[in-house]
Amino acid sequence: MEVILHLSVFLLLVKAAAWDHVTVVEGHTVTLNCNINSPLKKHVEWKNPDGYVIFFNHIQALKDKRYSINRLSESEFSISISNVNFKDGGTYTCAYYNPNTTEMKVELTVLGLPRMTRIKHKGTTLVKCSAKANHHPPQILWSFDSGPEFRVYEQVRQRDKMYESIAFLQMLPVMRRIKVKCRIQHPAGHSQLLMDFVKIRQNGEYNSFHLNLFCIMDFFA
């Protein structure tokens, strides 16, 4: 009975957590913001998805050079993570004590750029599109030139926090050059403006440009 009473008191001292959602592209830098609404706060900390303390006030507890403090004031505690990878995805917790505990949680989703490749096998040409993301497998949408989008069967692989979707198109001989486009949809990717163009020439050479969550290939049969 005594244990239950102590637990109930502890829960009353922790205010309900506010939630935020942040999306970043693999390899980029992301900023996590925590608004502090109490000028009486004594201490404030950031924890990573595994529950380890990253920063306690100005003290860096987790020795990772990719972490840095952007701002620590009476009203804000913002940190940055550089060169983000899929292992960084998950829920981060900012907690401050005044003397009660108030928490804010930030769900970080890491998206990978879509990749397209052309594969020739026994006279058949296959176009492969793959993409990686946290939390949910990305959906792959195809289109030719400016035509309507469509989906084909996708293979989905999961490893730790990362989902990878892979889809193939078999290309038949055509009389003209066509543009094959692979577009990625993800619940957390609505605000991203990243595109990957792959232009393949007749001699097999290609150039890549990163502009949006698309992948486009010029195809020569």
UniProtKB/TrEMBL annotation:
Signal sequence residues: 1-16
Pfam families: V-set (PF07686)
InterPro entries per record: CRTAM, Ig-like_dom, Ig-like_dom_sf, Ig-like_fold, Ig_sub, Ig_V-set
Keywords, sorted A to Z: Disulfide bond, Immunoglobulin domain, Repeat, Signal
Coiled-coil residue spans: none
Domain Ig-like, residue spans: 26-111
Cellular-component GO terms for this entry: plasma membrane
GO biological process: cell recognition; detection of tumor cell; positive regulation of natural killer cell mediated cytotoxicity directed against tumor cell target
UniProt keyword Signal, yes or no: yes
Molecular functions (GO terms): signaling receptor binding
Source species, domain of life: Eukaryota
Name of the protein: Ig-like domain-containing protein
